[in-house]
TrEMBL record:
This is Putative MFS family arabinose efflux permease. Gene3D superfamilies: MFS general substrate transporter like domains (1.20.1250.20). It is found in: Cell membrane. The chain crosses the membrane at residues 53-74, 94-121, 227-246, 258-277, 312-329, 375-392. Pfam families: MFS_1. The keyword Transcription does not apply.
Length: 397
C-alpha cells in the first residue's frame, strides 16, 4: 500500500488535468440529467395513471438493477477502453430518454427501458472512477474523488430543483427532451474529448458475467480488500438508516414537513465532511483520523435517545454525516491494494455494495419504525455503526 503524501493537493492541480475536467463534466451532466429525467417521468406517469405506486416504481426503476449490473457486468469497466464504453453508455441514455420523451409507452415498457439504463450505470461509473488514480497520483486522487462526491450531491439536488422548475414552464415531455439533449452532449464529450486510451485489462476469453463473478470472489476472498470493502460499506449502511425514519421523527415533533430539513442537514454534513477531509486536513493526519471519523457517523445518533428538538436534530444529523469523509481514506487504500487491471471492477464493486447496503439499511430502519419510536431506531442505528467500527478497526486504522 502506497504511503500517503504529506502535501495536500490543490483544486488547480486537479482541474489542470484535461481528462479529469472531461470526466468531471460527464459526471455532472449525467447526475443532473438523470435527476431531471426521473422527476419528469414520475410526474408524467402519475398524470397518465393517477397511481402513486406507478410513479414511485418509475422513480426507483433506474436504481433497482444497479446491484444486478454490479454483479454481472462490472468486468467491462476494465476490459473496454473508457472512451468507447462511456460514449456507448451515454448514447444509451440518449436513446432511452428520447424514446421516453416521445411518450405513449405502456408502463411495463417504460420500466424495461429504465432497467436497461440502470444495468449499465455501475459500469459507466466504475470506468470513470478507475481513471482517477491514473490521472491524479498521490493526494490528487483523494481531492478528485471528493469533488465527484460533492458535485454528485450538488448536481442531484440542483437537477431535482431544476426539474421542478422546468415542469412549471414545460410539459414533462419537454423536460425529458432537455434531459436527452444533456445525454447527447455527454456522448459528444466522451467521444471527442476523452483520449483513446487502451483498456486496463486484456479482454478475457470468458463472458462478462463469469469474469465479473471471478474477480468479485477474488476481491472478497482476500483479507485486505474484503476488510476495506466492509469498512466502506457497513458504517455508512448502518448509519444511513436514521434517514429512513426522518419523516416519522419530524412528525413526532409536530412538524412532518420538517423532514426535508433533517435530510438537507445530512446532505450538508456529507458535503462539508468531504470538503474538509480532502482539502483542509493533511494527508498523513487524514489517514490517522479514518477510524474516529467512521465512528462519528454513528456517535451523534445516540443522542436521539433524549428526543432533541428540530434545530438540535439537524445539527446531530449533520455531525454524523460529516464523518463520511472517512470514506476517502478507505477508497484510496482500496485502489492502492488492487492491481490496475481490476481497479475498475474493484471501485465498481465498492459502489454497488454501498448502494445495496444503504437500501437495506433504510429499509430495515423503516421496518423497525413500525414497532419502535423513530428516535429509538436512530439510537439503534448509531449503536450498530459503532459496533461495526469496533470490528473493522484494523482496516480503518
Amino acid at each position: 500500500m502506497t504511503a500517503p503524501s504529506t502535501t495536500s493537493a490543490r483544486y488547480r492541480d486537479v482541474f489542470g488535468v484535461p481528462e479529469f475536467r472531461t470526466l468531471f463534466s460527464l459526471q455532472t451532466l449525467q447526475v443532473a440529467g438523470d435527476s431531471v429525467r426521473t422527476i419528469a417521468l414520475s410526474v408524467q406517469t402519475f398524470e397518465r395513471t393517477g397511481s402513486p405506486v406507478a410513479a414511485a416504481l418509475v422513480f426507483a426503476a433506474g436504481m433497482l438493477p444497479y446491484v444486478v449490473g454490479g454483479a454481472l457486468l462490472l468486468s467491462l469497466a476494465d476490459r473496454l477502453p473508457a472512451r468507447r464504453l462511456l460514449t456507448g453508455y451515454h448514447l444509451l441514455r440518449l436513446a432511452v430518454t428520447a424514446v421516453l420523451a416521445v411518450g405513449g409507452l405502456p408502463l411495463p415498457l417504460i420500466m424495461a427501458l429504465l432497467v436497461a439504463v440502470g444495468l449499465f450505470a455501475p459500469v459507466g461509473s466504475a470506468s470513470v472512477q478507475a481513471r482517477l488514480p491514473v490521472l491524479l497520483p498521490g493526494d490528487g486522487y483523494v481531492l478528485g474523488r471528493s469533488l465527484f462526491t460533492m458535485t454528485s450531491a450538488g448536481a442531484q439536488i440542483a437537477g431535482q430543483a431544476a426539474g421542478g422548475l422546468l415542469l412549471s414552464v414545460l410539459t414533462p415531455a419537454g423536460a425529458l427532451w432537455l434531459a436527452a439533449a444533456g445525454a447527447a452532449l455527454a456522448a459528444g464529450l466522451a467521444r471527442f474529448r476523452l483520449p483513446d486510451a487502451p483498456a486496463a485489462a486484456r479482454p478475457a476469453s470468458t463472458g462478462a458475467a463469469r469474469a465479473t463473478w471471478r474477480t468479485n470472489r477474488l476481491l472478497l476472498g482476500r483479507r485486505t480488500t474484503r476488510g476495506l470493502l466492509l469498512a466502506g460499506w457497513l458504517p455508512i449502511s448502518l448509519s444511513v438508516g436514521a434517514e429512513g425514519v426522518a419523516v416519522p421523527y419530524a412528525g413526532e415533533l409536530g412538524r412532518p414537513d420538517a423532514a426535508g430539513l433533517l435530510l438537507s442537514a445530512a446532505a450538508a454534513g456529507m458535503f462539508a465532511g468531504n470538503l474538509v477531509a480532502a482539502r483542509w486536513i493533511r494527508p498523513d493526519l487524514r489517514e490517522r483520523l479514518a477510524l474516529p471519523l467512521a465512528a462519528l457517523t454513528g456517535a451523534p445518533l445516540l443522542l436521539f435517545a433524549f428526543g432533541p428538538g428540530l434545530p438540535a436534530a439537524c445539527a446531530l444529523m449533520a455531525a454524523g454525516t460529516f464523518g463520511l469523509g472517512y470514506e476517502l481514506v478507505v477508497q484510496r487504500r482500496l485502489v492502492d491494494a488492487v492491481p490496475e487491471e481490476i481497479r475498475g471492477q474493484a471501485v465498481g464493486l465498492y459502489g454497488s455494495g454501498l448502494m445495496t447496503g444503504q437500501a437495506v439499511g433504510i429499509g430495515t430502519a423503516g421496518a423497525l419504525g413500525e414497532a419502535m419510536a423513530p428516535g429509538h431506531v436512530m439510537v439503534l442505528c448509531g449503536a450498530a455503526t459503532l459496533i461495526a467500527c469496533l470490528f473493522l478497526r484494523r482496516p480503518l486504522r
